[in-house]
Amino acid sequence: MKFMGNGVFVSVIILVFFQLNGNVKCQTTTAVNVGALFTFDSVIGRVAKVAIEAAVADVNADPSILKRTKLNFIMQDTNCSVFLGSMAAFQLLERDVVAVIGPQSSSVAHMISFIANGLQVPLISFAATDATLSALQFPFFLRTTLSDSHQMAAMADVIDYYNWHEVVAVFVDDDHGRNGISLLDSQLAKRTSKLSHKLALPHGANASVISDLLDKSREIGVRVYVVHVNPDSGLEVFSIAKQLQMMTSDYVWLATDWLSTNLDSSPTVDPNLLQTLQGVVGLRQHTPESSMKKAFYTRWRGLQKNGRVFSSLNAYGLYAYDTVWTVARGIDEFLKEHGNLTFSFSKRLPNMNDSTVQLEKLKIFDGGRILVNKLLETNFTGLTGQVGFDSNRNLVNSSYDVINIDQVSIHRIGYWSRNSGLSVVPPEKLTREQQIKSRVDQKLNNATWPGGKTEKPRGWVIASNEKPLRVGVPNRVSFPDFVTEDQDTHEVKGYCIDVFNAALNLIAYEVPYKFQVFGDGRLNPDYDELVKMVSDDVIDAAIGDITIVTNRTRFADFTQPYAANGLVIVVPIKNMKSSAWVYLKPFTAEMWCVTAGFFLLIGVVIWILEHRINDDFRGSPRRQVFDAFDSSAIFISGLAFQLYLRQTVREIINLYHLFNKEDTVSTLGRMVMMVWLFLLMVITSSYTASLTSILTVQQLSSPITGIDSLITSNQPIGLPGGSFVHKYLTDSLNIYEGRLVSLEDTDDYARALQRGPDDGGVAAIVDELPYIEEFLSQHTDFGIAGHMFTKSGWGFAFKKGSPLAVDMSTAILRLSENGDLQKINEKWFCRTGCLLRKGRRSEPNQLHLVSFWGLFLLCAIFTITCLLIFLFRMVRQYVQYKRKRRQLLAISSSDQTPHSTSGLSRVVYNFFDFIDEKEEAIKKMFKPSINPHPPTNDEIR
């Protein structure tokens, strides 16, 4: 400890450890001396002094405890000083005290615990919360208040409940402050959070020092502050924060139990002070409601009215009261078993002739260890609830109220206990099952935050106008469409920049930023170094075409990938050999199916149009079916003719007559045939051109056909400069580094591949798929060998733990879902590369249906129109035919009585019979006759 440097105290501590037998002095059992050490003039001390005096009076007045033995309390003021507190401890120990209540300060408790160890006097503190005092190093120290180990667990649960991941701690640089914040750091680490910064205040720091520390902390960006100071001076932190405009809605202020202690101790709280504390969330030591507690509060108010106390009662006053009763019960049990209290002189201490300290009066309490054990066995109900100790010498009842200051008053928004965590139900009212459920389902009531807002603050600010986000971007030389700096305007632009800006626009808060270009503009920058700059705090983020690989994730947090990625191999290509089914490749499957469908459609329509007037389309059903499909065989004949003879339309028609004996005689049939011939000429011409291109298309000419042949080959490999590809090929694929050739731009790619390995070039190039697609859209002499052999993506890099990385990932997902990401991609790359990307699975030079759907649509409309005209004529002729038949029926003999049983099905049947008749037969029916044969009833129907 720092305060152990004083030579006098070191000597004292060393010597008091020697427990030598000397003269024995017995303290009479009619009065037992008990000491008390605390700071009288302090927030806690002013309340504790009155509470201790009240407890002593109650103990001495209670005949059921200590019987005729009275407690004689001796109080000493430590003045909140380690030095003065140590001197006060020696003065107490000279008075043969069997126990010391206190001290109030954890720093003083550390020093006096060494003295208590040496003289074997139990030290029972009602206010020293430092968890390290519970160590085995101090066997004579007991704590009758809650340990900071529990308080920091409660604070960490509150922080985790609101999902804050970074915290700034404000604390006094002493044992109590340092050890408490260290515990908080450990508890946050268990909940995936951390202390990003610590503001250590010197003891007794003035306003200027506090202001400077708080002002500098604003540059960090974290806006969640945990204040762990002492009750007497802590309010100044909030007053200065108010002056620095740090009590606004962007900030979160959390306080340990010192704040509730200060506020509870004030008889009247200044409304202006509570206005300053608006939105602060803090902890208060929880004490269950009971009739005993209510009675003591009533008694305390009476003391206030009588002018005996000027402070209100706080939790430490209740613990001080129960501490006196704990000591009294322990002494009572000791006296029942062991009788008198004895002390032994040390022969060594008086021999310190060189010391100016009077040590000859110091005595060792012989029953100290026994009394400690009796105290640890304490079990009773006091003002603070059940009083007892666990195996770590901490109170068994460890719980806190979670308070929130709002509307110039203090509100309780929940509870915390080590068994149930956060809950809106008091811990003492929770059953075992409810405690387990509460630990899983943490709850707090709604809180109000600084600025009066009820919405939970983010707890961090990534940047401000005064200090914008420093965003590093690579200044690419090759593939500038992805990201680069314009050399004339110095504007940073590209596909990646547009994605970044679009994602940033979807975030609910403003993020000022400025770009910092990385690279000299002559060579592609090293992307590993760019990401490393983020972790070194040179920049706050790195955006661009940055591939997410394992070694980079050690330095930064990456967003959700916004572009799929992977490595591919590019090699030269040559003419492709033909195959037995190459004639099918010019058309896609959809094109073949639609063309065949039209082949059937035209055949059926022509048969319908020719059947009534053309003898070539009549006969047996088998022949008519054959004639119907044979009528459209012009497709096959014309196709063959165009492929091999390349003749005119007239010659196509002649070829049709060569293959087909039938001829079209109707006007509508000839019109349909002419439209079909026109469509056929376009399709066959396109088919011929596509087949010619396919027969001369190129294929890979390199012996490297994939990743396996790349590894086994000993030929040089080209790769982009500044990329992770070099490290991947050497470390992951174990390719000899001497084979790798760094290339800077697309021209270098093309030249190196064209020259080949025998002429100082390379056999293949390995690069990421987006770059290669862009390269191949401009250079058709090369192709991709094999398949993509890695899968990764591009993302934006942020500092470790940066919440902006999470929000940007969410924004990128939204861009992908609403289609904006695809629109940005098309904006930059569909000028030349979209067809390549969309049709990667199609054969080269294939003809798609989308290129001909207009012609097919016109042909279908014209054909169906002709068919409808024909049907309209037939219906009109059928009506005339029926009318003529009825007239003939009227002229027939009167003995024939018509009895029609016509129906819809009969009409339809007669209509189709009418259509099936030859046109000449129908016309004969309309000619006048001398002796007309009267129609039958069926004819009438």
From TrEMBL:
Signal peptide start and end residues = 1-26
Keywords, sorted A to Z: Glycoprotein, Ion channel, Ion transport, Ligand-gated ion channel, Membrane, Receptor, Signal, Transmembrane, Transmembrane helix, Transport
Please give the InterPro entries that the UniProt record associates with this protein. ANF_lig-bd_rcpt, GABAb_receptor_plant_PBP1, Glu/Gly-bd, Ionotropic_Glu_rcpt, Iontro_rcpt_C, Iontropic_Glu_rcpt_pln, Peripla_BP_I
PANTHER family tied to this protein:
IONOTROPIC GLUTAMATE RECEPTOR (PTHR18966)
Predominant location of this chain?
A: membrane
Q: How does it sit in the membrane?
A: Multi-pass membrane protein
Q: Which SUPFAM superfamilies match?
A: Periplasmic binding protein-like I, Periplasmic binding protein-like II
Tell me the domain of life: Eukaryota
Q: Which CDD domains match?
A: GluR_Plant (cd13686), PBP1_GABAb_receptor_plant (cd19990)
Q: Which is a Pfam family this sequence falls into?
A: Lig_chan-Glu_bd
Can you name the source organism? Papaver somniferum (Opium poppy)
Q: What is this protein called?
A: Glutamate receptor
Give its localization: Membrane
List the GO terms this entry assigns under cellular component, sorted alphabetically: membrane
Q: Does the keyword Calcium apply?
A: no
Q: Does the keyword Transport apply?
A: yes
